């Protein structure tokens, strides 16, 4: 028996085909090229993700990208914005590939400016739960209808408790955005796994998390509180090689690993949701119905999107024998 579903929903897509949504020279033409490529890849709908940048970059790029979000051709496909920064922990390791010089302390007035420039389309923000004052920002974001996720942080249980009390309910790429060496007991991974108020977003490209950790995370959080994201970088869709982006040397290896060897960190993913879901399917951890839940149902629920917000003209087949998804028209 072969199953058929609509395309996947991705809450974290930074760009495609060498085009970054946070680029200083982003054009509307390039943004459309990237979005069209993403939507042809097996992703039916996604949040345009803008990472940590100078404030004037948000002022420039968010209105530009709103032209696409407001375009009827993208209705139900471009679901809004995920702002992954600038309210992140700037310490080495926690900040990952982001530029620490562009981080900002949590300020409600900055968030309000972002939402103004985004014409109300910010639906998800990533903040560091351990930053002073982040609870007030979180409360304000939630009152604006924005989902608040903790990431790029050294937060422990007390920090996550405070953010949850303020309305935070998600964890951005749990297991990543961390120093390579952390305390064996007191660290954001254990605290995030143990906290029942948080849904974990995880990158299942096969590089960000080893298979055994994917299994542990899914079993600890449960299917209801797991969301798969790609964290696709602007280098997704590009051939292996050496690139520059976000102030990083970026090396895309033949096996798909995307990393900065100097900082010893990853720089997003080279995979799209299609590859992430096939990697997850190959682990044989979830039923077909559960895979649809973590890749379509749960992402929409997390950002309070209704079924009317999501439209798909894709058809994806799943063969339970081979444990593979494929585009139905391929």
In short:
By secondary structure, this protein is of the alpha/beta class. The protein is built from nine helices and 17 strands.
Give the beta-strand count: 17
Return the string of H and E elements.
EEEEHEHEHEHEHEHEHEEEEEHHEE
Percent helix range: 25-40%
**Strand count, sense and closure of the main sheet?**
8 strands, parallel
Question: How large is the radius of gyration?
Answer: 18 Å
Estimated structural class: alpha/beta
In the CATH hierarchy, the architecture is Alpha-Beta Barrel
Question: What would CATH call the class?
Answer: Alpha Beta
What's the overall average pLDDT, rounded? 95
- What gap, in angstroms, lies between the N and C termini? 18 Å
Number of domains: 1
Walk across the major sheet and give the strand order: 2-5-6-7-8-9-10-11
CATH superfamily: Metal-dependent hydrolases
What ranges have pLDDT less than 50 throughout 5 or more consecutive residues? Answer: none
**Tally of DSSP helical segments:** 9
CATH topology title: TIM Barrel
**Shape assignment:** globular
Strand content: 15-25%
